Amino acid sequence: MFRNIKDTLSRSTAMKASVVAGLAVAALAAGVPAEVSRSYADAVNVQAPQVPSFANVVDAVSPAVVSVRVESRINSAAEEDDSFGLGRGFDDLPDDHPLKKFFRQFEQQQGRGQQKGQNQQKNSEDGKGRLRPVAQGSGFFVSEDGYIVTNNHVVSDGAAFVVVLNDGTELDAKLVGKDSRTDLAVLKVDPKGKKFTYVGWADDAKVRVGDWVVAVGNPFGLGGTVTAGIVSARGRDIHSGPYDDYIQIDAPVNKGNSGGPTFNLNGQVVGINTAIFSQSGGSVGIAFAIPATTAKDVVTDLIKTGTVSRGWLGVQIQPVSKDIAESLGLSEASGALVVSPQDGSPGQKAGIKNGDVVTAVNGEPVKDPRDLARRIGAMQPGSKVEVSLWRDGKSQSVTVELGTLPVDQSQSPADDNSQPSPSQPSSEKALADLGLTVGPSDDGKGVAITAVDPDSDAADKGVKEGEKITSVNNQQVSSAKDIVKVLDQAKKDGRTRALFQIQSGDGSRFVALPINAG
C-alpha cells in the first residue's frame, strides 16, 4: 500500500515538472525571462476607530506633579550604630580586628565614615536623632509660588520633607498644614524667583461614571508614572471617617501614588488618590480619590490658616434602618438618628434629644449620618442653621448656632459593634417575646440585660448580655414592667416594632426589635 502511494506521488511530481518545463520553454520562445514570479498577500491593517491618546494631557500636567520624600528623626541607639544594617557590636572589637578594619574601610569608601561621626556628635548634642527616609508619596502644585497638595497619611510622621520635581530637581519643603479627617496636607517650597507649573481643580459634580481619567504619581518610588482608567463609581464609603465621599477609579494605582492627582482629559484635577482596594498590597485596579470640591475647600483653609475650622452640632448619630423607621412611624429609612447629644453641645442647647431623627438641614433633606456630618462640617462655626427633626411621630424644627468641631471629636455614627461591660448578678425577669432576660441595673438607671436568647431577633441585632436598656420608644425605663407598659402602648398604636436604646461600656445605640415575634 505504502509503495503504491509512493509510485503515485512520483508520477505526479514528474508531471508537474513537465508542465513547469513547458511553461519555461514557452516563455523563452516569447522572449520573456525564464523566471517564475511569486505574489504575496498584504499585511494585516485593520481600519478601526482610534482610542484618544493621553499624551497631550500628560505632557501638560507632568511638570506640576511631584514626588514627596518624607524623613523622620531616628533616636534609637541601634540605628545610630548601624548605618548599613550590619548589626551592632563592631565598635567593641579590638582596633586591629580584621572585621572592624574591614567595616571602617567600607564606610570610608562609601563616603560615610566621617559624616557618620559628625552626625553622631551633632545628634548627641541636640538630641534630635538622625533624619531617615520613612515614607514616600506623590503631590502636585496648586500655585505658581510653590504650594503642594498631598495626603496627610504621607506626611503625618515626617520631620522633614523633600520634593522631587519632574526633571529630577530636589527641593526642601515645609509643612503648611494637614487635616486628618479628609487625609489632606499642604507643603510649601521656596520658589526662589521661579514660577512652577500648577494645575487647577475640576468640577467633580460634572464627572460621570465611565469618564476617562489619568493618574500621575510616584508608585514604588519610580516617579513620573502615568496610568489611565475610568470613573467607576461616586460617593463611595470605605469606612475611613465621617466625611467619606470618594470617587472610585478603576485604574492601576499603587503604593506611592498616595497624594497624587487624577486628571480629566482637560488636565484638571478630578480627585486626589488616597486609598486602594487590595488584599495583597498591590494594585487590583480599584482606587479611591478625594473629590476635587472637597479638597479645594480644605486646601484653601490650610493655605490661609494652617488648620480647618468645621461646624459642630455635638450629637452622636447612627443610621435609620428600615426597622427603626417603622418603629418611629417614619415613611422611609433616611435621616440620622440621635443616640445622644453631648453635654453642653450646640445641639443639646438647642433642644435636640436622644431618639430624635434629623431629617433636614436648612430645608435640604438628610440622607444618612455621613450626609449630616458632611453638611454640618462644611459650615462655618457660629452659623445658625435650621435643623428639622422627627420626634414623637411628628415633625418639628429647632435653630442651632453651630460650634467649632473640637480637634479630637467628630460627628461620627455610633458603633454598632460596641463591646458590653460586665454586669453584676441581679434578679431576673423574662421578656420571652423579645428573647431577653432583664433585671435591675446596678446604678438604678435603665434595665440590665442578664441573658439573650441566641435564636432571637435581639441576638441577631447584636444585643448582648451585660448591656442595658435605657429607653424604649424614647421613654425612660427602669424595670421590666416599664418596658412591657411601653410595648403595650406601641401595640395599641399599631406599631409592629419598638425602638430600644442600648447602653454599653463603649456608648449608646438604638435597635429596633419586633414586638410580636417570639
TrEMBL record:
NCBIfam families: degP_htrA_DO. InterPro entries: PDZ (IPR001478), PDZ_6 (IPR041489), PDZ_sf (IPR036034), Pept_S1C_Do (IPR011782), Peptidase_S1_PA (IPR009003), Peptidase_S1C (IPR001940). One of its GO terms (cellular component) is periplasmic space. PROSITE patterns: PDZ. PANTHER family: PERIPLASMIC SERINE ENDOPROTEASE DEGP-LIKE-RELATED, SERINE PROTEASE FAMILY S1C HTRA-RELATED. Belongs to the peptidase S1C family. The active site is at H153 (charge relay system), D183 (charge relay system), S258 (charge relay system). One of its GO terms (molecular function) is serine-type endopeptidase activity. It holds the Pfam family PDZ_2. Residues 314-368, 434-490 form the PDZ domain. It is found in: Periplasm. It comes from Rhizobium miluonense. One of its GO terms (biological process) is proteolysis. This is Probable periplasmic serine endoprotease DegP-like. Its EC number is 3.4.21.107. Residues 1-29 form the signal peptide. Keywords: Hydrolase, Periplasm, Protease, Repeat, Serine protease, Signal, Stress response. Its main location: periplasm. Substrate binds at E71, H153, D183, G256, N257, S258. Residues 107-122, 408-427 have a biased composition (Low complexity). It catalyses: Acts on substrates that are at least partially unfolded. The cleavage site P1 residue is normally between a pair of hydrophobic residues, such as Val-|-Val. It comes from the Bacteria. Residues 107-133, 405-428 are annotated as: Disordered.
